[in-house]
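Colleagues,

For the teaching module next term, I've prepared a clean inverse folding example: a structure given as tokens, and then the sequence designed for it. I'd like students to try predicting residues themselves before seeing the answer, so please don't circulate the second half yet.
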């Protein structure tokens, strides 16, 4: 099932600072097999422009901010990530685009699978076709 939602992470800390722990099976609802981060994104650059067939992800702007454009084939929504204690959980056939990166944005992504090019749909029209076929089967 395709879905996305914001998830809040419990912030721990004291006068020394803050800490957030992300644990699979607790606040990460999948086994984490890959972690990557995006940083030093140049002004005006947009990224993403793809969907995944099976991959689950949590994206967290650990510093700065960026905007996700999420599309399930019938509805597009923008979600701005601005807080390191909040992540965007995405699973299923959701087209994603990322834009409006702040100059200091560091976006970390936790993924349920290792990189697999065959899990990507990089053409929007093909994405719409796949979504249509999946909804006809359901």
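(Answer key — instructors only)
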């Amino acid at each position: 099932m395709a879905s996305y939602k914001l998830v809040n992470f419990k912030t721990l800390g004291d006068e020394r600072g803050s800490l957030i722990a992300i644990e699979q099976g607790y606040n990460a609802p999948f086994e984490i097999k890959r972690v990557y981060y995006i940083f030093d994104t140049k002004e005006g650059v947009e990224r993403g422009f793809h969907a995944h067939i099976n991959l689950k992800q949590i994206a967290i702007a650990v510093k700065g901010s960026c905007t996700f454009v999420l599309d399930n084939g019938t509805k597009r929504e923008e979600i701005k990530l601005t807080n390191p204690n909040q992540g965007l959980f995405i699973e299923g056939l959701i087209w994603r685009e990322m834009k409006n990166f702040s100059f200091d944005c560091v976006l970390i992504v936790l993924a349920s699978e290792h990189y697999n090019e065959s899990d990507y749909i990089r053409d929007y029209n093909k994405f719409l076709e796949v979504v249509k076929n999946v909804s006809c089967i359901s």
